[in-house]
Amino acid sequence: MMTCLAPAFNVVDVDIEKAIAEVTSVVGERPQLVTTRPGQPWVGLTSGFAVHIAHDDRTRGRIREEADRLGWAARNGIPVPAVVEARPDWLVTTRAVKGHE
Description:
globular, 5-stranded antiparallel β-sheet, disordered N terminus, alpha+beta, two-stranded antiparallel sheet
């Protein structure tokens, strides 16, 4: 496991590189991490995608719930970012378009 010391990203020791490598293989671009509120999933951004990465069981649940909510909204005609791929440890969506968030 590659260790990433990143207290700004809610955890002290996590294998973030594995998740980033998996996401990069899906979207074709390495996401850049952005600071989130404490206790939230990590967030990464690429030019066209938003990535939410879990760091514990609670944030895995939040990611699963968000994927479910976005899917429900899309099926019901509510404009939301599209879910590109959802895995237990991360979720990739399209980035919201200004004026359509």
